[in-house]
Amino acid sequence: MRCVFVQFRCTPGKTYEVAEAIYDREVVSELYSTSGEYDLIAKVYIPDDEDVGHYLSGRLFDIPDIVRTLTTMTFKAF
């Protein structure tokens, strides 16, 4: 499994609805609200045999009221 972090910017006033929709998909291991440019951050484990872009696009990025995302790939921990 590969770990990635995905930040979500939501339509104003829709963050809670987006968060519920993300949880309903049962894809993320952790989900937090954040301050700053993005409203939410999620920790997602991608199966090794899956393409990260296709996996996230097919499971999360079609949720209504997501305005923008930022995906951060992780590498070997120290």
TrEMBL record:
Residues 6-76 form the Transcription regulator AsnC/Lrp ligand binding domain. It comes from Paragemmobacter aquarius. This is AsnC family transcriptional regulator. It comes from the Bacteria.
